[in-house]
Design goal:
- By secondary structure, the protein is of the alpha/beta class.
- It has three domains: about 230 residues, Metallo-beta-lactamase, Chain A (4-Layer Sandwich); about 110 residues, Oxidized Rhodanese, domain 1; about 100 residues, Rhodanese-like domain (Oxidized Rhodanese, domain 1).
- It is built from 16 helices and 24 strands.
- The strands form five sheets. Strands 1-2-3-4-5-6 form a six-stranded mixed sheet, with helices on one face. The protein has a six-stranded mixed sheet with strand order 7-8-9-10-11-12.
- Helix 3 crosses helix 5 and helix 7 crosses helix 11.
- The N and C termini lie far apart (about 50 Å).
Length: about 475
Amino acid sequence: MIIEQIYTGCLAQGAYYIESNGEVAIIDPLREVQEYIDKAEKSNSNIKYIFETHFHADFVSGHVTLAEKKGAKIVFGPTAATNFEAIIAEDNQVFKVGGITITVLHTPGHTMESSCYLLKDENGKDHALFSGDTLFLGDVGRPDLAQKGEVTEEDLAGFLFDSLRNKVMPLADDVIVYPAHGAGSACGKNLSKDTVGTMGNQKETNYALRATMTKEEFIKEVTDGLLPPPAYFPFNVKLNKEGYQDIDNVIENSAKPLSVEAFEIHANETNALVLDVRHQSEFIKGFIPQSIFIGLGGTFAPWVGALIKDIKQPILLVTPEGEEKGTIIRLSRVGFDNVIGYLDGSFDAWKNANKEIDTLESISAEVLEEKSKENPPIFDVRKPGEYGSEHMENVTNTPLDYLNEHISEFPKNKAFYVHCAAGYRSVITASILKARGFHNVIDVAGGYTAIKKTRIKTTSSVCPSTLT
């Protein structure tokens, strides 16, 4: 038996390759499926099943493409409804893969069709739980994504409590836990950086699995502090339910090199968004006016999904040379399939053509220390939890995730400063503000990490929500 976790850091997502006696099961595959096909072919094995733990909201899964390419059967848990052929399993239904079995445990709560998959080894012993978004390491799935009709997030949290107590917690302590996500995912609040654990460890350390916890306490703790989900989540659910085009077609349609002249014409005629994915240190030195920075070096795809509201928005890319195809693939993972081309020769081609460029002013934390004596407007664009843990005195928290809700707070008639934790999110923020006419924005290089090394006064507090 082989179990391999294929973890994608940008999405904080774990897919799973399971092989036994020439048969393979894939759990929660990424949209680009060739890696799974190659692994199976290398061992002369047949991909038999594709198990989906639920309709994912944070990425487009590869189930449809993999089934089309290899003839594997797609399996969802009870209550799921799809526009393509799939096995809608019953609770406790058993699937045989080589010498092992995989049992469906229906665990509604994160969503109503959410299910975990219990793998029993060749001896029939419980070996591993593929827990999807029902159970993370250190957390559980947020219960607010599948509200429908009269079903509230409190109702879903109650279902999740019952699912965990009745289906998950009775499992033995030595059962391995393979979750769908780790730290950085928006599908939970406080996920661990670890990506593999055990039931015993989770029973001891996961707040949501406290043996003495009442259902009322669970509902309160699980729903407390939930921020609104990213805007792209409903679109990804729709794609995962209804199907999508093969990623090879997306790449063929999108990977079109454009000369400076053609790039400019496309930008003017299509109302395309110019997305610059170079490193922030390169972006601030020069970029195409009105372009938006979201660098490949950070959690690129989720930030695109959170900040670009229209999933069908035409996009023109400025990438490091050689990163064009990879950028298109990463965008497609969150359903952004409408790239219409990229700047051939990257930003150097634009600069060498003597086209207009813009720059972003960026200062060091030491310079900010001097400027702060004049009490200028300073904006912290980290998440509320980061801000609440520790922040500069007399600064405003305007989280990048919800920048649109804070636009009116930024001054247009005087200089102001933005910072994040290390410099990635602040440059994203500054690029968006610049594109909207806030040319007096100044980035703080190194972010709060650098600020803490100065004598600037800091404090900690519980950050009141500005989003309710």
